[in-house]
Amino acid sequence: MGVTIHFEGKLKSDFEYEKIMLDAKAFAEANKMEHEFFTETEKLLLRHKDGEEWDYSGPTKGIRIQPHDNTDPLLLEFDENNYIQEYCKTQFADIAIHIKIVEFLKSVENYFDNLKVNDEGEYWQTADKGILQNRIDTCFYQIETLKQNDPTLDGPYKTEGDRIVDLLHA
């Protein structure tokens, strides 16, 4: 459930890493979004591909952008091979935030050998604001229906890592 932008791919080279960091910083600053660069000497990234887990453990680097208080952070966290697999849930923020993130990803797509994007709002595929809004409206309807049918459900909640969880048992 939710409207989330999933993305993954491998940068063409270290040079593209430097370019995407500059572009990400410019994107964050132009949109007045909090951001910070980071490096980790050892990090576990939980990854999935074709239903299988293929976790990564090792050094990471990137930038963390907070598009809005009501979204997941937009993490551009690359492993030592310049590979990324991330997501950003946007459904609880204004539709414009979702569109900005998709447009940013489109603007850096050529830095990747093959950037795969699965946009649950379908904006990446269609650039249709009506379809995106319908997906968000459907999501809210489903959440409210579930809450009405089970009074122990409540949400949304933000985790310590600033990820948003739609519903939890209270």
Structure description:
This protein is of the alpha+beta class and 170 residues long. 33% of the residues lie in helices and 35% in strands. It is built from 4 helices and 12 strands. The protein has helices spanning 14-30, 95-108, 123-126, 129-149, and strands at residues 4-10, 34-45, 48-49, 52-53, 56-66, 74-79, 83-89, 116-119, 153-154, 157-158, 164-165, 168-169. The strands form 5 sheets. Strands 7-1-8 form a 3-stranded antiparallel beta sheet. Strands 2-5-6 form a 3-stranded antiparallel beta sheet. A two-stranded antiparallel sheet has the order 3-4. A hairpin with a 5-residue loop joins β10 (157-158) and β11.
Q: Share of helix among residues?
A: 25-40%
Average pLDDT number: 94
Cα distance spanning the termini: 18 Å
Provide a count of the helices.
4
Side by side, the strands of the main sheet go 7-1-8
- The general outline is globular
Layout of helices and strands, plus pairs?
Elements: E1 4-10, H1 14-30, E2 34-45, E3 48-49, E4 52-53, E5 56-66, E6 74-79, E7 83-89, H2 95-108, E8 116-119, H3 123-126, H4 129-149, E9 153-154, E10 157-158, E11 164-165, E12 168-169
Antiparallel strand pairs: 1-7, 1-8, 2-5, 3-4, 5-6, 9-12, 10-11
A few lines on this structure:
The two termini are 18 Å apart. This protein has helices spanning 14-30, 95-108, 123-126, 129-149; strands spanning 4-10, 34-45, 48-49, 52-53, 56-66, 74-79, 83-89, 116-119, 153-154, 157-158, 164-165, 168-169.
